[in-house]
Amino acid sequence: PKPYINLALIKAKKKKWDEAVTLLEQANNKPGRPLPPRLKIVWAICYREAGEYGKAIELCQALIKENYINSQVYFNLAFTHFKAGALEEALKAAEKARALNVNETEPVILIGRIHFAMKDYQAAKNDYEWSITHTSWPVESYYWLGRSELELGEINQAISNLKTAVQRITDDPLLSDVPMEEAQQWLDKALTLKLQES
Asked: Are 165 and 142 within 8 A, CB to CB?
């Protein structure tokens, strides 16, 4: 199955998720050893990004049942639940991912997104403040911190963090899932609210 795996990894890097899924399914069905856990995580990511949340969740849960327990399995389970809109399940899995590796920032950033989606803006703010202090070059965290502060009515802090977000997203767009235009719109909204306060 090695040629299938190699081609699947190339397709995944090119974000051709459906093609990667098909190749990984074919590799898994070939005689011999089943796919190793690290490739099953890639397979779950491909399912998730192809919108097949149920299959991604199944793969992650199967890895957990096989006692392949690490932060990446739980992170991917959490992110899939989040994308599927199952916020409670997402939060539980993300907290487990964080507990398995307390120095990793990805689970905390995801926990912040989940808290924000749950409208728990203070918790989201705390998550993003932590992630900013534990990341060498935070980009998107400034955006979500600013959004959380805006929801909490902390307009001056929101303006400051949204300005930083716009600048960093402009400088490093590949480090953010948030488009610069969206960050700029929220900065403009915060500036308008500041003017209305005056």
From this structure: yes
Evaluated on CA atoms 180, 185, 186, 192, the torsion sign reads: positive
Closest by CA to 170, choosing from 140, 148, 144, 141, is 140
Q: Quote the pLDDT of residue 2.
A: 87
Tokens of 157: 């802090």
Span 105-198: which CATH code?
A: 1.25.40.10
CATH 1.25.40.10 segments of the chain: 1-101, 105-198
CA angle at residue 87 from 13 to 183, to 5 degrees? 60
Contacting residues for 83 by C-beta, under 8 A, at least 6 apart: 48, 53
Q: What average pLDDT does range 98-108 have in this prediction?
A: 95
How many Cβ atoms sit within 10 Å of the Cβ of residue 102?
10
Q: How confident is the model at residue 55 (pLDDT cuts 50, 70, 90)?
A: very high
Within its chain, how far is the Cα of 152 from the centroid? 23
CATH topology of domain 1-101: 1.25.40
* DSSP secondary structure code for residue 35 in this structure: P
